[in-house]
């Protein structure tokens, strides 16, 4: 198998699945390997690892360099989740108060406090 493909495959496996811009990092390493293979066209995998470092070590250095991307991605994710929760709560409270506004009279039992009756007594 092609040593470049093996190196890239091991690099991709060393980066976490949900890491933001994983494709961009893979493209950078692919370009780095292409540049390397221009100077050493018959390089083996062992020679590539000796000159460039292990794919896992390369992935770790890229992860450390791009840690801010991870922090921004996680922050944006939590802000989105918080916005959804707030929207659902606002909708629930709004629906509750609208329901109470239109249906509140049904809960009130109306009875007169004093019952006034007409009398036919003669006052004379």
Task: Using brief descriptors, characterize the structure shown.
single chain, mainly alpha, 5 helices, 69% helix, 0% strand, rod-shaped
Summarize the structure.
The chain is mainly α. Helices cover 69% and strands 0% of the residues.
**How many DSSP-defined strands?**
0
Mean pLDDT, rounded to whole units? 80
If you compute it from the alpha carbons, what radius of gyration comes out, rounded to the nearest whole angstrom?
36 Å
Low-confidence stretches: none
Tertiary shape = rod-shaped
Distance between the termini: 124 Å
Structural class by sheet pairing and helices: mainly alpha
Strand content: under 5%
State the share of residues found in helices, binned by percent.
Answer: 55-70%
The H-and-E topology, N to C, reads as HHHHH
Q: How does the major sheet shape up?
A: none
Count of separate DSSP helical elements: 5
Explained architecture:
Helices cover 69% and strands 0% of the residues. The protein is rod-shaped. The protein has five helices and no strands. The termini are far apart. The chain is mainly alpha-helical.
């Amino acid at each position: 198998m092609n040593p470049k493909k093996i190196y890239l495959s091991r690099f991709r496996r060393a980066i976490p699945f949900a890491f933001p811009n994983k494709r961009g990092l893979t493209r950078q390493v692919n370009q780095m390997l292409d540049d390397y293979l221009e100077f050493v066209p018959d390089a083996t995998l062992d020679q590539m690892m000796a000159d460039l470092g292990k794919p896992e070590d390369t992935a770790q250095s890229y992860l450390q360099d791009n840690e801010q991307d991870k922090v921004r991605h996680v922050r944006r994710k939590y802000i989105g989740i918080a916005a959804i929760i707030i929207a659902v709560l606002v909708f629930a409270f709004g629906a509750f108060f609208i329901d109470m506004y239109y249906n509140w009279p049904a809960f009130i039992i109306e009875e007169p406090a004093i019952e006034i009756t007409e009398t036919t007594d003669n006052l004379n």
